[in-house]
Amino acid sequence: MLNQLILKTMPYVPKSIVYLFAKKYIAGPKLEDAIRVTKTLMELNGASTIDVLGEFVTTKERAIHEKEMCMKVLDAIVDNKLNTYSSIKPTSLGLGIDFNFGYENIKEHISKAKNLGLFVRLDMENSPYTTMTLDLYRKLREDGLDNVGIVLQAYMRRSYDDVKSLLDYKPNIRLCKGIYVEAESIAFKGFEEVRENYRSLLDLMLDNNLYVGIATHDEALIQYGLDAVKKRNLEKNQYEFQMLLGVRENRRNEILNAGHNLRVYVPFGDDWYGYSTRRLKENPQMVGHIVKSVFGIN
Question: Is 248 noted as a catalytic residue in this protein?
Answer without folding.
Answer: no
